[in-house]
Amino acid sequence: MASNKKVLLKVIILGDSSVGKTSLMNQYVNRKFSNQYKATIGADFLTKEVTIDDRTVTMQIWDTAGQERFQSLGVAFYRGADCCVLVFDVTAPNTFKSLDSWRDEFLIQAAPREPDNFPFVLLGNKVDLEPRAISAKRAQQWCQSKNSIPYFETSAKEGLNVEQAFLAIAKNALAQQNQTVDLYNEFPDQIKLSNAQRPNNGADACGC
Amino acid sequence: MFVKPEEVLIANAFWETEETSIYFVLQHRKGHGSVKGLSSLLVGTMDSIFDTKPAPYRILHQTPNSEVYYLIARGMTKYEILKDWEWLFENVCETLHSFDNEDDITDFVNCKIEAVIAVNQEEVEDEDSNAFKVTSDKFQRLFGLPKDEKLVNYYSCSYWKGKLPRQGWMYLSINYCCFYAFILGTDTKVCIRWSEVTELNKKNSMLFPDSIRIVTREKEYHFSMFLTKNETYTLMEQLVDLAVKRLIDDKKSYREDKELLNKLSKNVPKKASFLKRDLDARAQSEAYRMLFRLPSTEKLDGSIDCTLMTPFNRKHVSGRLFLSQNYICFESKVKAQVSVVIPLRDVIVAEKIETNTSNQSLEKAIIVTMGNSLNRTNFIFAQILDRDFVVVKLSELLARTQEMQVFNRDRASDPLIDTEPVWKPQKALMTMFPLSPIPEVSKRQQLKAKEWEEHFNTFGRGVSMYRTTDVAKLVLGGIPDHLRMEIWMSFSGALNVKAAHPGYYRSLVDKALQKQSTANDEIERDLHRSLPEHPAFQSEIGIDALRRVLCAYALHNPSIGYCQAMNIVASVLLIYCKEEEAFWLLVTLCENLLPDYYNQRVVGAVVDQGILDELTLEYLPNLHDRLLQLGMMNMISLSWFLTIFLCVMPYESAVNVMDCFFYDGAKVIFQVALTLLEWNQDKLLQCKDEGEAMQLLSEYLMGIFNDEGRGAIRNKSYDEQKRTVSIQVLIYEAYRRYGCLSTGQIERLRLKHRLRVVQELEDTCERNVLRCVIGDGYFTKPELQELLGLVREEIISQKKHIPDKHDPSLQPYEAYKIDFDYFKILFAALSPWGKGETAESLAARIFNLMDSNRDGYLNFRELAGALGLTSTADAIQRLKLLYTIHLPPLLCMSDIESPEKNESGAEIASEATDFFSTAEKNLEKSIDSLNILEDRSPGTPTSSNCFQWQKTLNTQPSVDNSIGSQVSFVEGSSLKEWENKSLTSLRNLVQSKDSKAEMKGVPRMSQTHFITLWKTVYDIFQTEPEELDTYHAIADVGTLLLELGDVGKQFFVGRDESEDSLATAAAAACAQSHVTDEAETPDKNGNPSTPRTEIQWYITVEQFLASILNAQPLVDYFSKRSSISDNIKLLKGRKINRYNSIVEVPATVKV
Ligand SMILES: Nc1nc2c(ncn2[C@@H]2O[C@H](COP(=O)(O)OP(=O)(O)O)[C@@H](O)[C@H]2O)c(=O)[nH]1
Ligand SMILES: [Mg+2]
C-alpha cells in the first residue's frame, strides 16, 4: 500500500542572500528565530515530519547560499525536488527582481518533467518590517503570470504565516510526487523526452 | 657598479668628497650617512621631494688639467663603491701612469669602463637567433597568423592522422599549438588555439604509443615521437595554463617580462627563443615563490650551490642558495632537512668571511648579519664557488632594500595622516574578549608555549627561523593562541607582503568605508552571520573590525570583491590576530593559498572540488562511486574548502587545521578531507540518500573537539553533542595517511582541473547566451552556435580586454561583443545585403541602428538581430529595416552629398542641405516635443506607438536614464539625444513583428533619401542572378513611389499636427519653425541656409511597403531565408587576415 510507505518530500528554498531563507526554515522546523547562526555556505538542510490528510510525510528542506556567485553551484541537489520555494524580502526590491532568474535557473538545473506545472511557492518575507517596497498586489501579479503560483506573506521573526506556508508547500510537493508517480506508471519510458520545450521567459517579463 | 662614463660639469655642491687620487674622486651625497648637519638634512629632503633617489656614492674621473669630470661608477653602499675604487687601483691606475697625454688617459679610462660594463651585461639584450627568426616567420606564414603571434619553440614530432603517423614539426606559440608536415606532395596542417583546449595529457596506448594528447570540443589530437617529450609537454602545459588563466581573469594575460629575463639570462643556458627563456624564467620564479611562500612580485635572480651552517646541530648542510630582490633563501638537498627564508629588510650586512685555513668547511663563506629584533642569529653560507659575484649581488640588493625602507618610512609617516584618525586598528579580539579560563586548558597552553619558547631559542624566531621538521611537529600539535598570529604571519608569507606595503591598509580602509558598493552592502548583511557564537561578534567592536577588513579587501581586489565565506574566515583571523595582520593573512589566503577561490564564479573552489573527486577515486574507489551517485561531492566540498572547515567544525577545532594550512598550504585541506571520508566510509556506503549522508557528515564534523581550546565556546550544544574525534588525532592521522600528497602534486592537479572547469564555465556561458538570443527567432540554435563560435574566436584573437563573462549585472550575451571592423566582415560574408557596392555603408548604418548603448560595439544579441533582419526576418521586417536605414539620423545629408557619386548634381544636394539645416536648427524644439510625448505616453495606452516607447523605457533603463539626465543640463548635446531617441524608436519599429499600427509614427522620407534608398535596392539586386522580372519590378515600383511622393506635396501644408507620434512631432516641429524662425544661421557644414518656400516631396513607410509588397518578385526576394551556416563555413575556410589589411573607419560613409 502506497500510503504506508514512508514518503520523503524534497523541498528547495531559493532566493537572494539574506532574504531570510535560513530563518524561515529554522522558524518552521525549530520554532525559533535566532541570531546565532552563520551565513549558509554551500548547502544545508533540515527535516520535519508533517501530517497531510492523515499521511505522515518527512519534509527535507534544503537551504542554499544566496550570493549570486553560488547560484550555479548548488545545482547538484536540485534534482529530484518535489517543490521549490522562492523567497524575497518585501522591503528589498532587488530581491523581488531576481525571482525570475532563480526560477529559470531552477527549471534548467532540476529539469523537471513538466516545467510548466512544477510546483513553486512564493514567500514574501519580513512583513514585520517597514517600509515595504513590494506590495502584495505586485507579488500576486507576478505569481499570476507564472501559472498561478501560491503566494504567502511571512515573517520568520514573528513566526507569522510560516506554518501555513510550509503546509501549502508540503501539499504541493506531495501532489507533485503523486502525479509524477502516476505518470510514471502510465507511461513507463516515453515520457522522458518531454522536457525539451520549456517556456521562454525573458528577463523583461516582470509586470512592473 | 660601473656606469657608462658621462660628463659632469662640476663636482657639485650636493656631494662631499671622501677620497681622492690623481685621476679619481670618490664622493658621497650630502645627507647620506651619519652626518646630520643642516645642509645634509636639506639634501635629504630635496631628494625625497624630487623622488630622484640618486645612488648615494659615486666615483668621478678627472685629469689634473681638465675641467671636465666623468662619472664612471655609482654605488648604493659604501661597501660597493669601495670595491669599484679598489678595482680601479688594481686594474687601471698602474697603466695610467704610462700615458703622457691626458686625453689618452681619459680615453683609456672610458674605454676600460665601457668594456667592463659590456662584459657584465653580456648579451642581455640579445634577440632571437637568426635561424629561429626564419622559422618564426615561416610559422606565421604557414598558418596565416599575425606578426605578433610569436613562436615560442618548435619540436620535431609526428602527428597521428587517423592511424598513420606523419613526421613533421610542432610549433608552439603563445596562443596556438600548430603542426605542419609535408610528405609526398601533400601537406598536413593542424592549428589548435590553446584557449580551445579542454584536455591535455600524456598517453601511452597501443594505438598511440608514448604520445601527447590534446582534446578540444571538436576533436582529439595525438602527437608522438618527440625527442624531448617532457620538455615539450611542460611547455605545452605552461602555455595552456596561461590561456586558461586568461579566460578566468583577463589581467593575468601574458606579457613579456624583460626584467625577469635579464635576471636569469646570465645563469640559464641559451635556449632557442626569447619567449621560451622568458617562460622558463617565469616557471622558475613561480616555483621559487611557492617553495618559500614569497609575495607574487618576487622574481628569482639566480641560485647557487652552497652549504649552510646549522648551529642547532653544528653541521654544514649542503643545499642551494636563492637570491631575489628582497630575499635570500636556502633549501637543503635532502628534502625537508632545513630551509631558511631571510628577508633582506632584516639584514644589516652580508660579507665575506676571510678564509681560515684550519676550517675547511668555512671555505668561501659569507656571513649574513641580522638586525631583526626577533632573530639576531647570523647565517653562514659556505662553499660558494662564485662567492665574489654573490657578495656583489647581495650588497646591491641590500643597498636597494635599505633605501626602499627609508623611502617607505618617509611615506608612512606622512604628517597629513596624523589628523585625528576616525578609527584605530583593533587588537586581537581574544585579548579584548578573554574567554573564561579553564584551568586544565590554560595549563596545557602554558606547556605548549614553553615548548615553542625552547624551539625559538634553538632555531631562531620569525620568518628567518631555521625551518626543520621540528617546527612542523610543533605546528601539527596546534599553535598556542598567543603565538598564532606570529607563526601564521611568518609561515604563510603574509608578513612579507605586509612589510612591503606600509600604510596601505589604513588608506584602504579610509577609502573603502567612504564607498558605496554592492560589495559593501553584501558585507553589511553578513557581518552578524560570521561567528555569532563568539562574544566579540556580539559586540560592535568585533563587527566594526570585521567590516573594515572585508571592505578593505573588497577595494583591494575588486575582481573578488566580497564572497560569502570570507566573512567567516576573516572573523576567525580577527580573533587571533591584530586587525592589519588579519587583513594581510586574508590577502595571502585569497591570492596565494587558495587562488581564484572567491572570485565571481568561485572557480578555484570548483577546481579543488574536482581534485578531491579525483583523489577520492584514487584512494577510496568504492566510496567514490557512492558519492558520485549521491551527487555529494559538490555539496560537501564547497563548505569545507571555502571556509577551511571553519563553518562545519567548531571553530576552535578547525583553527588547528588553519595552523597547518598556513604552514603547509592547501594540501592540508585535501589530507583532512580524505581522512574524514575514509573514517566515515562504511557509514556513507550505507546511506540511502544524499540527505542522510549530509547529516551523517555534518554531525560527525560538529563533534570534532579540541581539549586545548579555550573552550568557553563550548556551550551546551557543544558538550551535548556526541564527541567524535579530537582535532589533534584527526590532523595527525591526516598527515600519517595522506602526508604523501605534495604541494607540487596539488598544483599539477589544479592545472589539469582548471582547464576542465574553465571550459565548462565557458560552455555554460555560451548556453546561456544562446538561451537568451534564440527567443528573438532570427536563427536556429546550430546557426547561432556557429555564429557565436566566430565571435568567440574574434574576441580571443583581438587580445583586447575581454569583458567579464560573469558580471552578474550584465546579460550573458553582453560579454560577447564585436566592433565595427569585424561586423563589416561578418556582414559582407553572411548577409545577402553584404555583397554590393553599398554594402559597407549599409553595414555602418545597420551597426549604428543596432548598437543600442552606443558604445561602438554590437553585443551578440544585437549582432544576431542585425544579421537576422537582413537574412531571415519576414519581408515586412526587412523592408522596414531598409526604409529605416535610409532615414536620418542614420543616413545623413553629408553622406549623400559626396560629390563624386551624385549624378543628379547640385540640385538635390542643395535641396537636401536645406531640409537638413532647418531640421537641425530646430532640434531643440523637436526635443521638447519629444519630451511631451514621453510624458504623455504612459497615460495613453491606446496608442501602440506610445506603448512601444514605454517598453523601451523599461527594458533599457540605463540608456534612458542617461539621456534623461543629459537633457536637463547639456544643451549642446541635444543633437546626440535626439539621435539616440529616434534611433531607439526606429530600432523598436524594425524589431517589432506586428506591423501596421505603429507605422504611423515613422518619419516620412525625403526625395533625396528615397533616391539613395532606391539605389541601394538596385545594388542589392545586382548581386543576384539577373532576372528580367525583378528588374522590371524594381523600375516600376521606383517610378510609382516617385509619383506618390509628388502627390504627397499637396497635402503637406494641411497636415494635422496632433498626430500622436514621436516622429510626426519632430517633423511638425521642423515645419512649424520654418515658418516662424527664418533667421539665416549657417548649418553645421558652414553653408548658409536658405529659407524654404517650396513644399516637400515625401513618401511614407506605408506607401513604401504597400508598393513593394505588390510586386511579387520583390516580395519573393525579401522573403527568401538565406542560410548563414554555409556562409560561415566559407568564411572559416577563407582565413580572414584582418591584421594585415588596413581597416577603414565607418566615420565617412559613401553612397
Ligand atoms: N525583521 C525580520 N528580519 C528577518 C526575518 N527573517 C530573517 N531576518 C533577518 O534577515 C537576516 C538574514 O536572514 P537569513 O535567514 O540568514 O537569510 P538567508 O541568507 O536568506 O538565509 C538575518 O539578520 C535575519 O535575522 C523576518 O521575518 N523579519
Ligand atoms: Mg542562509
UniProtKB/TrEMBL annotation, chain A:
The reply to whether Nucleotide-binding figures as a keyword in the UniProt entry is yes
Q: Which UniProt keywords apply?
A: GTP-binding, Lipoprotein, Nucleotide-binding, Prenylation
Name the UniProt record assigns to this protein? Uncharacterized protein
Q: Does the keyword Nucleotide-binding apply?
A: yes
Q: Where in or outside the cell?
A: Late endosome membrane
Protein's GO biological process: endosome to lysosome transport; phagosome-lysosome fusion
Q: Which NCBIfam families match?
A: small_GTP (TIGR00231)
Automatic annotation (TrEMBL), chain B:
Record GO biological process: system process
Q: Cross-referenced Pfam families, in alphabetical order?
A: GRAM, RabGAP-TBC
Q: Which GO terms describe its molecular function?
A: calcium ion binding; GTPase activator activity
Q: What keywords tag this UniProt record?
A: Calcium, GTPase activation, Repeat
* Boundaries of every Rab-GAP TBC domain copy: 478-665
EF-hand domain sequence ranges? 838-873
Gene3D superfamilies named in the record: EF-hand (1.10.238.10), Pleckstrin-homology domain (PH domain)/Phosphotyrosine-binding domain (PTB) (2.30.29.30), putative rabgap domain of human tbc1 domain family member 14 like domains (1.10.8.270), Ypt/Rab-GAP domain of gyp1p, domain 1 (1.10.10.750), Ypt/Rab-GAP domain of gyp1p, domain 3 (1.10.472.80)
**InterPro entries associated with the record:** EF-hand-dom_pair (IPR011992), EF_Hand_1_Ca_BS (IPR018247), EF_hand_dom (IPR002048), GRAM (IPR004182), PH-like_dom_sf (IPR011993), Rab-GAP-TBC_dom (IPR000195), Rab-GAP_TBC_sf (IPR035969), TCB1D9/TCB1D9B_PH-GRAM1 (IPR036014)
Q: Which domain of life is it from?
A: Eukaryota
Q: Return the SMART domains for the record.
A: GRAM, TBC
Q: Which PANTHER family match?
A: PROTEIN VASCULAR ASSOCIATED DEATH 1, CHLOROPLASTIC (PTHR47666)
The protein depicted here goes by the name: TBC1 domain family member 9
Q: Name its species.
A: Dendroctonus ponderosae
